[in-house]
Design a protein that fits this description.
12% strand; 59% helix; alpha/beta
Amino acid sequence: MNTISNPPSLTLCGFMACGKTTLGKRLARALHYDYVDTDELLLRRTGMTLPEMFAIGGEAYFRDREHEVVREAALLEHAVISTGGGVLTFERNARLLAQHTKIIHVRRSFDACYASISRRQNRPIAGQKSREELLALYNARLPAYARYAAFTLDNDETPERAVERVLAWLGRQGMGV
């Protein structure tokens, strides 16, 4: 596997269950970077659960807290940042991350994402929506991911192979040996 010399922090974006967490942790290990999940950081910083944030001030309150975490994460050096599925659909977040990091769109078919979502009970947005509503959300978010991505990774193979493809891309960008 290639050794990468000083690539910028990387942001992984994509739909829920596309593989951002799995790939992010493996990529961070390969690069010797820190791994940061904006959803986990948000819960730690606020000391609240998602339902508690929504109860306090609805989605606007949640999105403002989310932006604070994105602002913090964007300034990290030597980090692989996994974002919540909706982070890049907000211009202020997308611009900030694009300015300070290289954004990688982790693209996975809706059917594969949905199969993973269906097996998990810890996804509040998914639990409230039908398959058709989730498909509409998937299709609505794709343009935002594509707009800001420096690289699109089709996550259709093993995690190891996906990490190799990202490392190869970094190498082609002059950030590897």
